[in-house]
Amino acid sequence: MSLKTAAKFARRELRGGIKGFRIFLACLTLGVAAIAGVGSVKSAIQAGLSDQGAVLLGGDAEAQFTYRFATDEERAWLESQSTALSEVTDFRSMVVVGEGDTAERGLTQVKSVDDAYPLLGDMVLSPDIPLPQALNGTDALPGAVMAPLLADRLGIAPGDTFKLADKDFHLSAVIETEPDDTGGGFSLGPRTMVRTTDLIGTGLLEPGTLFETEYRMLLPEGTDLDAIKAEAEDRYRDTGIRWRDSRNGAPGTARFVDRMGAFLVLVGLSGLAVGGIGVSAAVRAYLSRKTSVIATLRTLGASRATIFQTYFLQIGALSLVGIVLGLILGALIPVVFSPLITASLPVPAMFGIHPAPLFEAAIYGVLAALLFTLWPLARTDEVRAATLFRDAMAGASLLPAPRYILATAVLLAILVGTAILFSGDALITLWTAGGLLGALIILGLAAMLIRFVARKSVKAMRGRPAWRWAMGSIGGPREEAASVVLSLGLGLSVLAAIGQIDGNLRSAINRDLPDVAPSYFFVDIQKDQMDDYLAILNADSAVSRIESAPMLRGVVTEINGIPATEVAGDHWVIRGDRGVTYANALPDNTDVVAGEWWPLDYTGEPQVSFAAEEAAEIGLELGDKITVNILGRDITATITSFREVDFSNAGMGFVMTLNANALQAAPHTFISTVYADPAEEARVLREVASAFPNITAISVRDAIDRVSVLLDGVAGAVRWGAAATLFTGFLVLIGAAAAGEQARTYEAAILKTLGASRKRILISFTLRSALLGAAAGAVAIVAGVLGGWAVSTFLMETSFAVVWPSAFGIVLGGLLTTLLAGLFFAWRPLAARPAQVLRARE
C-alpha cells in the first residue's frame, strides 16, 4: 500500500518540473554518454575489422612461417585447400640512395610479393599504374614501389634508383593505399614493395635471416574456418606453422583497440564517479528544500518507508531520463562525427547504433545512480518529524542505518565486478577502482580538515572582515566546501594522475632511454661476416661498446607437453615468435637467480635458461620442459636456470638462452648492439653499411620517435577522456555554487544591513572561491601524484619523478575554475535588496 501511495506522491512532485535537477541530469547524462560513446567507437572499429578482416589479412586465411619458405609438401596442401594462393615475405632492410659518404640510408619494412598479390583489395599507386607494371620496372632494373614518407625522407621520386642490399631497383611509383597494411601491426620503417624473385642473390632471404613468409589463401565458399585451422595445426604442428583467418585479420590492432577501449571506459567511469558526487549533492540539496513537504507528510501520518519510496521513485524516474539522454548522445555523437573519426583512424570502422556498448553504459548508469542517491535518500529515514521543521539535513546523523550501508557496499561491489567483466582486465580495473576510492577518501578527509582549519582561523582574522567572513562560510554547517573539494578535486586528480603518468612515460622514453640505450641494432649479420664486422667496429674510437649474440626466432608451442596457450594463455612470450640465442659460457652481466648454468663443454639434452620475471608470470619452475619450434623443427629443452633480463634499456635481451650444442648447427645470423658517440653515429652506420650491404641497421632514436608518435595518439585519447571528467566536475561545481546562491543572497543581505559594502562582500566571496579552488588543486596534486606513482611503479614498472609544471598547472586550474564559478553566482546576491530578502526569509 505504501508503494502505491509513494508512487502517487512522486508523480505529483514531478509535475513541478525538474528545477533543481538540471545539474543532476547533466552529470548523469555526461557520464553515461562518455562510456556509451567510447564503447560505440570501439564497437565500430571492431565491426570494421570484422567486416574487412579478409582484406586486412590479404585473404580468407593465412599460414605463416618464420625465417623459411613452405616446403613443397606444405605448399601443395595449401594449394589444395584454396582457390587462389599468394606468397608474401616481410622483413626489415636498408634502402640506400647514392654512393659513398653522400649516400642516404633509411630503414624500411620490405614486402616482397608474387604475381597473385593482392588477392583482395586494391593497390593504389601514384602515378596511377597497375602494380604488376610498377614491379616490372625497366629493361635494366627491377621495379619497386615505396611509401611516400620514405621517398620524401630519402629525397627520391618515381623514376629514381635505390639499392636494397647490393641490388639496384627502379622506383616506379609511391604507395597511396596498401589494402593489407593494417594486418601487419606496428613496424619500425615505412613500406617498400618488390617482387620476391627480384631478391634472389641479395642475401636478404637466406636461411637464418630474419623474415616471415605468409601464404594468403582464398577459400572455397562455405569452408569451415575452424575445421581447416584445426587440420592445418594438426598436420603441421611440428613445423612451426602459425594460422589465422579473416575473423581476426589484424590481431595486433584488435588487441590494442580492446585494451584502449577498456581503459577509456575506466576513465569514463572516473567521470561518472565525479558526476555521482554532483548527483548526490543535487539530491541532498533537493531534499533540503523539501523539508516542509516531508514534515507535513510525516505529520499527516506518512511512514518513513512511504517518504523514502516517494523520493526514491521520483529520483529514479529522473535518473532514467538522464541515462536515456546519455545513451542517445553516446550513440549519436560517434555517428554524427564519424567522417572526422574515420579520417583519423588507420583502420576501417562501421559506425551505427551498436546495442552492446549502450547496454554496458546503461548498466553503469543505473548502478552509479543507485550508489550515489541511496546515501542522501537514506538520511531522511533517520530524521524525526519534529526535527524536519528545523533543519532536516543538518540534524541527520552522519551515517545512515546499517541496512543502507550494507546496500551501498553491495552496489559498489557489483559496480566493480561489472567493470571487471566488461573490461576483461581485473588488474587495471581494481587499480582504477582503488585509485578512485583512495582519492575520494583523501578528498573527503581534506574537506573535513579545510572546514576545521577555517573554523579555527575565524578568531585570528579579527580586523580583516572579508577574510573572516570567507573563513566562517567555509567552516560553516553548509557543505559547499565538501562539494567543491570532492567534485573538482576528483576531476583534477584524474587529470593530474594522467599528466604524471604521461610525463614520466615520455621521460623514460625520450630522456632516460637514450642515455642507456645503444645507438644501433645491427641484424642479419652472417656467420662469416662476424670477424670482419667486429674488426671494423673495434678499430673505431667512436664506438664505446659492442654486444653480439647469435639470433634465431622460435615459437613456443608446448610447456610440459601441453599446448603453450593452455598453460600461459595470452602471455606475450607465447604470442608470436620470440628471440632465441645460445651460449656455452655465462654471458657477461648476466645474473642467474635460480638453478645453475650448464658446463662449458655440455653436449647433452637441450637445456634452457629462462627470463625470471616472465617465468614467474607464466608459472614456470625449474625442471619444466619448453618446446620451441625453430625453422620448422621442434626443440624441447629443460629449464635449468632463471636469470634476470632487463628489457627496459633497449639493449640485448633474450627470454630464452639455450646451450650452444642445441642450436649452433641451425642456419642463423647474428645480432649486435653498438654504443657510439652520438656525433659519430652517422659515420659508423656508413662504414658498416658500405662494408656489409645486407646488414640492416635499426636506429634506436628512430624507434623511440616511432613509439613517441604512437604515444601521442594514446595520450591524446586519454586526455580527452580526462577532460570530460574535469568538465563533469566543473558542472558539479556550478551546481554547488548555484545551490548556495540563496544562502549567499541572505548572507549578503545581513552584511549590507550591518553596513558592509558591496566591494568588501565581493572580496569575501572571491576569497572563499579562491581558497576552495586552491585547496581542491593542492589535494588533487597529492592524489594525482600518488596515483601516477602507483601506476608508473607497479603497472608500467618505470621510474617516477614528479612532473612539477603539470602539478602546479592543476592547482592553477582548480583556483581559476572555482573563482570563475563563484564570481558568476555572486552578482545576484550582491544586487539583491536587503529588505526584500529579509522579508521573504520571515
From TrEMBL:
Keyword flag Lipid biosynthesis: no
Main location: membrane
Residue span, ABC3 transporter permease C-terminal domain: 267-379, 723-829
GO cellular component, as recorded: plasma membrane
Membrane spanning residue stretches: 263-287, 308-341, 361-380, 401-422, 428-454, 481-501, 720-740, 761-790, 802-827
Highest taxon, organism lineage: Bacteria
Localization per record: Cell membrane
Keyword Cell membrane appears in the UniProt entry: yes
Keyword terms of this UniProt record: Cell membrane, Membrane, Transmembrane, Transmembrane helix
InterPro entries for the chain: ABC3_permease_C, Membrane_comp_ABC_pdt
Protein name: Putative ABC transport system permease protein
Organism: Thalassococcus halodurans
